[in-house]
């Protein structure tokens, strides 16, 4: 797709002002003598973008965006958790060694780190909506191909292709929320975080029984998740056709009440790019140096350490309970409870965080829940198992909190896309060694005392980084960037 001139993106405040101004001009019955609202200074106000007639189109596009976000989020983890549920069958079917299986469990964070860095450049060139649409196609293709690839190498390659789509979508979800729902960052982040947690839990819980119901083949049990990914392609395809929403310079503005105020169609008739006051996501910000921002590094560390805890929980927690004498079926159910806890809390926590100027208290509260859970696992893993998994589920909700803070720590769309890529890609690199290190300690000590102490130890720097990242400041101010 050829490069397009990048139009200027209004800030959320300016977009609402333009929408109200357009409504007052076009409303029938207005008197010519009616006094106009005071205008913003010409030097700071971006040029007005044309608004489509009527609000019905804006409502339809907003609803389509919400559906697209939810369906995309549902598909960001089943590729991982469905494989975990059938890992033993996959190993036997492909004759994988234990070492190769260990590498396979480290592929997701590695792909998230490597491919996440490509998201800003792709979004600038094609628009975030078009990139997410392509990512859903990649997830569908990868999930469909990998069970039938015919060997370990093909399985890994197809898995990496699906994970590439997931990695790019991971980065662009906060960007799309910030850009199209600027007045509902907490609510929309909570909505797609809840959908992501639901997809994670459902894939972990139903993959095995669904495989048995479909004939018992692990290939069918893994491949069927491509159907859900294919469904997610549909709304994004519709949005891509409407360049006013997913083009490189489009946006949906919402009023203070959350109702759609209008849809910018700047991408339909792009003009020369100007020095946008908002630093829109379509164009790079001159002088953007995230390495100078303490908040950006704190967010990356916070994201990486919470991801470490999440991957340790998904990979090793059932084994902790089984070694404590808990039956295998119950151990799986305990893990499902941990995952399900993220469904309601992933909706509540971002909304609460968005109303607070400083998110540090939430970071500390979640960390203390995790420390309590690990202490209980160390002392009485089987006796208080249900309490510990609930507390772990609460602690693992640091993920939607991190996404919310990414959207709040920049004043511009361009800053959010760069910060999201930096924090997530760097964070996933940080998370790679954690699960492997827990496995090494478990193998060499023959017990869970030292590994659990390590898990708890990760929470201390996580809380410190989260408190720093949660302060009320932006990366533009810290790095002295130009918008």
How far do the termini sit from each other? 27 Å
Strand content: under 5%
CA gyration radius, whole angstroms: 23 Å
Low-confidence stretches: 1-54, 244-284
Number of strand segments: 2
State mean pLDDT (0 to 100 scale).
77
Output the helix-strand order.
HHHHHHHHHHHHEEHHHHHHHHHH
Structural class: mainly alpha
The main sheet comes to:
2 strands, antiparallel
Task: Describe how the helices and strands are arranged.
Blueprint: H1 12-26, H2 56-74, H3 78-85, H4 87-94, H5 98-116, H6 119-126, H7 128-145, H8 152-180, H9 185-213, H10 218-223, H11 225-241, H12 243-246, E1 251-254, E2 260-264, H13 294-323, H14 328-340, H15 342-354, H16 360-379, H17 385-395, H18 398-408, H19 413-431, H20 433-445, H21 449-469, H22 475-479
Antiparallel strand pairs: 1-2
Give a verbal description of the structure.
With 483 residues, the protein is mainly α. 70% of the residues lie in helices and 2% in strands. The chain contains 22 helices and two strands. The chain has a two-stranded antiparallel ribbon with strand order 1-2. Strand 1 (251-254) and strand 2 (260-264) form a beta hairpin.
């Amino acid at each position: 797709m050829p490069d397009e001139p990048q139009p200027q993106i209004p800030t959320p405040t300016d977009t609402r002002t333009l929408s109200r101004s357009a409504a007052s001009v076009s409303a029938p019955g207005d008197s010519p003598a009616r006094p106009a609202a005071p205008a913003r200074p010409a030097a700071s106000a971006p040029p007005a973008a044309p608004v489509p007639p009527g609000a019905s189109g804006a409502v339809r596009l907003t609803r389509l965006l919400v559906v697209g976000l939810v369906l995309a989020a549902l598909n960001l983890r089943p590729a991982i958790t469905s494989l975990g549920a059938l890992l033993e069958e996959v190993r036997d079917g492909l004759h994988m060694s234990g070492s190769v299986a260990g590498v396979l469990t480290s592929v997701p964070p590695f792909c998230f780190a490597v491919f996440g860095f490509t998201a800003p450049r792709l979004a600038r060139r094609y628009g975030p909506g078009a990139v997410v649409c392509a990512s859903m196609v990649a997830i569908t293709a990868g999930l469909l191909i990998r069970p039938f690839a015919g060997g370990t190498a093909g399985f890994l390659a197809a898995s990496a292709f699906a994970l590439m789509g997931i990695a790019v979508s991971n980065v662009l979800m906060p960007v799309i929320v910030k850009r199209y729902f600027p007045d509902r960052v907490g609510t929309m982040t909570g909505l797609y975080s809840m959908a992501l947690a639901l997809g994670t839990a459902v894939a972990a819980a139903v993959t095995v029984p669904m495989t048995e119901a479909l004939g018992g083949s692990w290939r069918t049990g893994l491949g069927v998740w491509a159907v859900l990914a294919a469904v997610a392609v549909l709304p994004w395809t519709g949005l891509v056709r409407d360049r006013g929403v997913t083009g490189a310079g489009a946006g949906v503005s919402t009023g203070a009440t959350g109702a759609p105020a209008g849809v910018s169609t700047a991408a339909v008739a792009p003009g020369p790019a100007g020095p946008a006051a908002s630093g829109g996501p379509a164009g790079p910000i001159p002088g953007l140096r995230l390495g100078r921002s303490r908040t950006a590094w704190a967010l990356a560390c916070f994201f990486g350490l919470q991801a470490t805890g999440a991957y340790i929980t998904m990979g090793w927690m059932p084994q902790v309970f089984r070694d404590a004498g808990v039956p295998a079926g119950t151990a799986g159910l305990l893990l499902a409870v941990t995952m399900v806890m993220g469904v309601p809390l992933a909706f509540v926590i971002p909304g609460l965080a968005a109303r607070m100027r400083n998110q540090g208290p939430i970071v500390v509260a979640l960390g203390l829940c995790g420390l309590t859970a690990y202490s209980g696992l160390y002392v009485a893993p089987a006796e208080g198992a249900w309490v510990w998994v609930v507390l772990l589920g609460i602690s693992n909700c640091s993920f939607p909190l991190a996404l919310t803070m990414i959207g709040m720590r920049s004043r511009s769309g361009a800053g959010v896309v760069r910060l999201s890529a930096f924090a997530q890609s760097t964070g996933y690199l940080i998370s790679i060694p954690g699960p492997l290190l827990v496995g090494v300690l478990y193998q060499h000590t023959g017990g869970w005392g030292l590994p659990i102490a390590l898990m708890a130890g990760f929470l201390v720097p996580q809380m410190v980084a989260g408190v720093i990242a949660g302060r009320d400041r932006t990366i533009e101010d810290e790095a002295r960037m130009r918008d």
